[in-house]
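Format notes (please read before filing issues)

Several people have asked whether sequences and structure tokens are stored in separate files. They are not. Every record keeps both together, in the order shown below: the sequence lines, then the token lines. Line labels are part of the format and must not be stripped during preprocessing.
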Amino acid sequence: MLRNWKDILLLAIPSLVSFASATVVGTINLIIVGQLGSLIIAIVGVSNIIMYNAFALFSGIGHTVNYLVAQNYGAGDMKRGIQRTYIAMYMCLTFALLIALVGLVGADDVLRWTGGSSELVHTGTFYLELRFYAMSFGIVNFAFHGFLRGIGATKMSMIVSLMANVPILVLTYLLTYGKLGLPELGLKGAGYAILIGESAQTLICAFIFFFVLNKKFQTRRYLTLTFKWVEMKLIAQESGKLGMQEFSLSLSMYIFTAFVARLGDQALAANEVALSIMSFGFMPAFAFGSTATILVGQFVGKGTPLLGRRVGTDTAILGGTFLVLLGTGEFIFAEHITHLYTNDAEVYQLAAYLIKASAYLQIFDGLLNFYAGGLRGIGDTTFLLRVSFIVSWFLFVPLAYLFIFVFHWGSMGAWLALYTFLMVFGLSVMVRFYRTDWTAVRLKEAAHA
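Then the structure lines:
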């Protein structure tokens, strides 16, 4: 068991730092631009939800690369892993152009659909457009990181994330407030900073894949061998299932945000501040979930799936411990933390109230990520799609509407709906993980697509 824990931590800690860098940058960015007022906080928060949906729809490609490459790496068949990565990259480039086009022609309409005020739409349209452009690079980056994690190179993934996210943070401050001779662009400056950071990260990822890793994995050798339609079909199907699973979740969060927006800009701002802070709980959940995918996938590739089941359990134990400790800190210092975002007392006090109520409930989000990561490692993607659709649309959205508009429980009602949803989702995935017949788990092959 201790050997498993060591292996888990060696993979999880770099992933934790990687996800943390993005989370911390997002949090500090919100604090930086938050000094411009509660309207700006609301715009950034709503834009984050919209970007979450755009990312989620295409994130299945990165998740698929992650688990397939992990299995191929465990099986010692990296030729197939590289070929599958090329196919995924072609798909990412196609979708990147689509995302950029949506940002160019439809940013204002997308923002208007959230139900925010006309002032919110007018002020935030160009910022959202820039975020769409940045997301075009972001989905390519996510697929590259999926490859790196699949081969266990989480330290390299961490370094790349830091190289991209730290400049985003610095540029946000400089361009928002016009420091060091740069123009004072306000909210637009924050958008430009994210675009610059994401595009730079794409160049770094490409350099690593085509040059740094070429000696070990011959990443440039298999370029002409990648057009295998059975593999493309497999990746498209798996990416579609995992992408729709994430999109079902993210779209329900979008509707949830639209419901909260109807409570007013201050309620929306408090909601986004609270979500930003609670994202520190999502951070270890994602990191340990990704680790579960890597290790379970590699054990499946080696032909020892029962060891994958054991390491999946150990990952959940360690990840859950992180969440309990983090929740304790959030509960104790909730108001101090929310006050960093804004001086609007109504906003930071309401946000602190929401955080205290959910500090320990985030363990269910952890269960969701830990065990979903394990199920991705064995390729159980159909179940993940089905359960995500059911709990998002037949539980979460109806409960949010009921608690906000029928019972009139306001922001707290919205968060009660959110964590009821996460509780049911997390427990469902955990039960599936342990009821799976692990002796029958096999390597994912295109012939079975």
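For reference, the curators noted about this record: Residues 176 and 186 are 4 Å apart (CA to CA). The chain has a mean pLDDT of 90.
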